[in-house]
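chain below, 511 aa
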Amino acid sequence: MRGKSLMFQGTGSSVGKSMLCAAVLRILKQDGLRVAPFKAQNMALNSFATSEGLEMGRAQVTQAEAAGIEPLVRMNPVLLKPTSDRRSQVIVNGVPIGTMSAMEYDGFKPRLREMVKETYDALEDSVDVVVIEGAGSPAEINLKEGDIVNMSMAKSADAPVILIGDINPGGVFASLYGTVKLLDADEQARIKGIVINKFRGDVKILEPGLRMLEELLNIPVVGVIPWMDVDIEDEDSVTERFNRSAGQGQIRAAIVQLPHISNFTDFSLLAGEPDVCVTYASRPSELKDADIILLPGTKNTIEDLNWLKQRGLADEIVRHARSGGMVIGICGGYQMLGETLRDPLHTESRIPEMAGLGLLNFDVRFNAEKRTVQAHGAIKCESGWLHDHDGLMLDGYEIHSGENTFGPGCVPFLYLNGRAEPDGVANPQGNVLGSYLHGIFDTGAFWRAVVNHLRAEKGLDANTGDVLTMEQFRDREFDRMAAIVRQNLDMDAVYKIIRGEDVPCGRWADA
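prediction:
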């Protein structure tokens, strides 16, 4: 092995591969190495537009930020964005090439293998170490022949593998043992370490099992990582944040949990504002006491709008807005606020047309072209509370199909990239607004302005303290996570594994 790579694979999805990759990238960066993340194929609705206007998975963006480098599409050359239970939009090297069924993509995948290898090799040449993330489990034996992201990728990169098991749902020893034993002999030999993740309790309770696992597999257990209460952006909608509230206070922000929710990373910073409690809502009753309702992005705007109507959430959102409550929509959630949504080419949906929520005076028409661009601009509003924040600079990115045709009832408030048409508009009362800008809250300043407006309406004092930016927030969380992982992962063993040296079993026998 070449000493240029380290790969994390898991016994299944959501075992913590993305977070551990990010933590190890931050640790290696702290130790003075030039490092980069890589994942051959991602399946997620959370995506990002690079500085080149190319689309990549959000997990590798987060990992690049942990590594202290600019996110580049070569860190994630293939991205699958599910549009239904059986079909996904396929994005190759940052550009959508079409929508495929699972069987169609399975037949197409072999054509990607050489491109993935070339992309990886170019990335490896630019850094000291590449930290590679697998997907799902390498022991999905029905998918093994067409694999481009697990053991096939490890062989292509000549990368040693650390296998991760999640203890939280139970059965971690069986899942680790079974995963290894379902692999071919050469693939088993590539696994140089095992990590048990998300442990709660005293590690001494685990030690008999750790010793037995090492004896059975002859693979060292190089770490037991505790459950980490850190706020790192999740890869996709398989996230625990939907089931818990964040922050405390008198101002309640409710984010609608859409079926095809995407880029909910837009809301990571919201609970950092004092007096704000953030929850996710999937029932009308969960919106009733909200001070502000936020509609996130979605990969299926019209179908998720239909879901809102069927569940009664649409009526509650309209009632909230008509009574003066604040509603903000981002990207697909912004489109839902309009009067009519049309998709004659079935770009996103099987439904060609649907009435929107009617809270903003515009129509949306979806088209085949997608706008993927980083965006910069400023608030410019002629009236209302937003006028008080004229000149406030905002940065982010746009990923959307669909163009708006505005009516006279729209009040523009945000202009991006020097374009003449507005990116964001509000209603005349200023309590309903939307924008295509992902990351609109990341500077902290705009969310502070929104919350201070809500505070004023509730008779609370404005917050005039320092604003926490998303960059500061992420750096703090990366460093916290790295400290926890460094303490519980044998980094001497990890460095030996990277260099291709053997790590003996027996650590837990001496404990």
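The first strand starts at residue 5 and ends at 10. The mean pLDDT is 92.
thats it, cya
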